[in-house]
Amino acid sequence: MTARFARASLVALLVALGFTAPAPASAATAANATAATSCYGGAKTLTYKYQTAAKEYGTYTTSSRCNDINLRLITDEPGVYLDACVVFVDHTAKCNNDDAYTTHGTEWGTVATDVKDGTHFVLRIHAYDTDAQNVTFQIAY
Fold this sequence. Notes:
Blueprint: H1 3-16, H2 27-41, E1 44-49, E2 55-61, E3 69-73, E4 82-87, H3 96-99, E5 102-104, E6 109-112, E7 120-127, E8 134-140
């Protein structure tokens, strides 16, 4: 029996028994997973203590690690949220998105999208309500 015939017979037997090779992951899926891992892997952990006025964190500089500026709470208190916006300090003193805040919880959320590498920004945080007394959160940029 030749090696080619033996290999073909083995493949035919495996197929007949229902064995199949796993489909390879697409390059795009693998690239997206790697990008998200490296982006969130570089997250910075900060703490917000309740105050009536907005609190600013930074100045930070965006990198090629993330395409967006992202935020999530890592508190285990249910129903606690923070409002956030980004100020691009080289261009304005106002928040992005028409000077509006977005509300964030424990899932990663985007505060600013498609931000160029090397952009200087300040993260402005405001309590969603009085439940946000002492909140640990992360930003990835």
